Automatic annotation (TrEMBL):
Gene3D superfamilies: MM3350-like (3.10.290.30)
Superkingdom of the organism of origin: Eukaryota
Annotated region described as Disordered, given as residue ranges: 94-114
Pfam families named in the record: PRiA4_ORF3
Protein name, UniProt field: Plasmid pRiA4b Orf3-like domain-containing protein
Length: 114
């Protein structure tokens, strides 16, 4: 982070865009001595489906819909297979646990704690 004491805690909004407009909110809970490397201590969520629009040819909302659908069509099954080959899910309950059944956009964020 910054050496300025005013910035030792707070939120950072990180935006990355490979055509999908990802936004990540990082909450800084404190700081430690400077180091050459970093590591997160805990997190929730799963790996993102990076560049879903280009590779999956469907977009984020369509990928979520493919998992919420009880009887997926062939296109939705292809989207699921693509996601399962490209992005890893750390939730052991399976990929259905990744995508919420509500219409919300986004997912759990990574949490640094110490």
């Amino acid at each position: 982070m910054f050496d300025n004491e005013s910035y030792t805690t707070g939120n950072i909004l990180y935006s990355s865009d490979f055509g999908d407009g990802w936004e990540h909110e990082i909450t800084v809970k404190g700081r430690d001595a400077a180091t050459d490397h970093f590591a997160y201590l805990s997190r929730s969520g799963h790996a993102v489906a990076e560049d879903v629009g280009s590779h999956c040819r469907c977009g984020w909302e369509e990928l979520k819909k493919a998992y919420r659908t009880a009887n997926p069509d062939e296109h939705q099954l292809r989207r699921r297979r693509w996601y399962e080959r490209v992005a890893e899910a750390e939730d052991r309950r399976g990929r259905r646990a990744i995508f919420p059944t509500s219409g919300t956009r986004g997912w759990s964020t990574t949490s640094l704690s110490g």
